[in-house]
Amino acid sequence: MANVPEIFGERVFNDETMKKYLPKGTYKELKKTIEDGKALDINIANVVAHAMKEWAIENGATHFTHWFQPMTGITAEKHDGFISPTAGGKVIMEFSGKELIKGEPDASSFPSGGIRATFEARGYTAWDPTSYAFIKDGSLCIPTAFCSYTGEALDKKTPLLRSMECVNTHALRILRIFGDTETTHVATTVGPEQEYFLVDKNVFEKRKDLIYCGRTLFGARPPKGQELEDHYFGSIKPRVSAFMKDLDEELWKYGILAKTKHNEVAPAQHELAPIFDTTNIATDQNQLTMEVMKKVAARHGLVCLLHEKPFAGVNGSGKHNNWSMSTNTGKNLLDPSKNPRENTLFLVFLAAVIRAVDEHQDLLRISVASAGNDHRLGANEAPPAIISMYLGDDLTEVLRAVLSGKEYVSEGKPVMETTAEVLPNFTKDTSDRNRTSPFAFTGNKFEFRMLGSAENIACANFIINTMVADVLEDFADQLEKADDLKSAAEALVKKTVEEHKRIIFNGNNYSEEWVEEAKKRGLLNLRSLPDALPLYTSEKNIKLFTKHHVLTEVELRSRCEVLLEKYSKIINIEALTALDMAKKDIVPAVTAYIKELAETANLVKTVDPELVPAAETELLKKLTSLLNCFVKKIDALDKAVVGAKEVEGAAENAKYFQESVLAAMQELRAVADEMESNMSAKAWPYPSYGTLLFSV
């Protein structure tokens, strides 16, 4: 059994390790650099680099790498050895401050959205000292940002860091207005809950669609799915439990605060939740968590699926992004306290979030847009594509009191009477939770529930940070001029809630009535990525990001281009995979089964000419008809894929893939699944849904 406090963070060059390996003066200078956001002096960098190297070598590392997050959605790394040649054919182990601060990976093959031409290869990685270095697979990994030779951000981290600085600037202004002179830094914090599926590796390797696409493109529904809801929070199977135990220990070694683990709703689906951290560190750790999940699963003969919708007909996987704002003095700015009506500072920050979500519904939807997540959003497992906010009964009553100018009288937390003498009575929360809400207040934070399970959370969080910072700036501009702060703040909150209350909805977001109501309120319903992405580069959004120096117009347009191209590429790969499976495996398998049925029918007639083989004949007719239809659907999908080459423009191409190629794939699948349901399991060329979901 692992000694958790002993192993926790053992692979991380964290604060404790810095104190041990760095001279006191250097440690203080480095901490000051991190806290003040200043450039690191090269002399300090040299000392830090030497200490990092010594620690890394002592822990078995032979190489170092700048670990960064390009717009591929996963992390990237290029490894260099510590070795440096000396006289006599020997080597010494060296690592300089220059190598720590700056790297130069080839940037030509990473997505750039047109910023770089393919032949322009130079790009730079720059050390992010706010995120701890760590050791992975024998290499010292240094978290870095990634930019082009001409300075544009080519990664997920850079806009996130810029947005965090923006929140800090304007949140501090608000705090100063309210007399807080102690706080010197405000950071956004996140706790990302991670959902995933586990399937048997041997079964996975027999499914081309899972190998190439991460999701099943064919598959008839099994007799049992998640209808009984018996998997949710159920007893964890021994094999999965062993995986989870190893996963926890691996994550703890990386200093990742993995806290909660349980079975999710769908068979073979599970969840891991960490304790919150600053958004930058939480983002890095979530990327590392997803990588470690896959590696640990492989050790147990399993495959970890992070696709948002690997199986049709059962719940897909999301990532709940628990977002808040905290001061370096330990204060959560979204904590309503015992009397939120009198907590004017809280109401100001709450009003800022309400206005930001309403004004930037489009950006929130865009922040979670992907080919995979389009399959999940709107199903009865994830919020719909319509953005709204849930505040709960208690906070809603507070805001009603603000609007009416009346006093708010809190009834306090009610007591839950269990009615069984052996069970203790306890106080319950003032409001229930709402699983259907995209952006729900959950006590002292907002839970943004729309993120897909494979998504880099930097995307959603730099957008949330920027839009909230923009409102905080406007609030600060107004309140700094106020003669009577309390009256001005009350009036500001009241005006904001009145103008943006349409975004607040505490009901069932799954209902058809809400779709109609949202339309009446003027809320957006952007059902897919092709519907949402064109709004990314609207005048409003260009102004928002450029004003706060989070993204330049060039960077914004490039990101839009990358997302649109990726969407089209993913569906194209899925279509080609479906065609490959259909032509090479499904058609031959069904043809062989039809032949077998025909031979059986003929054999029956040979034995008894008077006997009509009705069962075989009917099945023959049905499968032959389905196969003919299937071949026509193959031809239709083939033509749709070819037709995509004629569509110019990234947005137009994405829309074509959605309306023509994806639609043709769905029609092909429907016929295939019907054939699978009418064939022998041995005759079907792929492991069934039942095997995939229940074999672990």
Net shape: globular
How far apart are the termini?
24 Å
| CATH fold-type name of the largest domain | Creatine Kinase, Chain A, domain 2
Helix proportion of residues, in percent? 40-55%
| Low-confidence regions | none
User: What is the CATH-assigned architecture of the largest domain?
Assistant: 2-Layer Sandwich
Number of helices: 22
In percent terms, what proportion of residues is strand?
5-15%
Q: Say how many strands there are.
A: 19
CATH class identity of the largest domain: Alpha Beta
Describe the sheet with the most strands. 9 strands, mixed
Radius of gyration: 28 Å
Name given to the CATH homologous superfamily of the largest domain: Glutamine synthetase/guanido kinase, catalytic domain
Question: Structural class, please?
Answer: alpha+beta
**Mean pLDDT metric:** 91
How many domain modules?
Answer: 3
Describe the protein's topology.
Blueprint: H1 4-7, H2 15-21, H3 24-36, H4 42-58, E1 63-67, E2 79-81, E3 83-86, E4 90-93, H5 97-101, E5 102-103, E6 123-127, E7 134-136, E8 139-148, H6 157-177, E9 186-200, H7 201-204, H8 208-213, H9 238-253, E10 258-263, E11 269-274, E12 277-278, H10 279-299, E13 302-305, E14 318-327, H11 344-359, H12 361-366, E15 389-390, H13 392-404, E16 415-416, E17 426-427, E18 439-441, E19 446-452, H14 458-479, H15 485-500, H16 512-521, H17 529-532, H18 539-547, H19 553-607, H20 614-643, H21 650-677, H22 689-694
Parallel strand pairs: 1-8, 15-18
Antiparallel strand pairs: 1-2, 3-4, 5-6, 6-8, 7-8, 9-11, 9-12, 9-13, 9-14, 10-11, 14-19, 16-17, 18-19
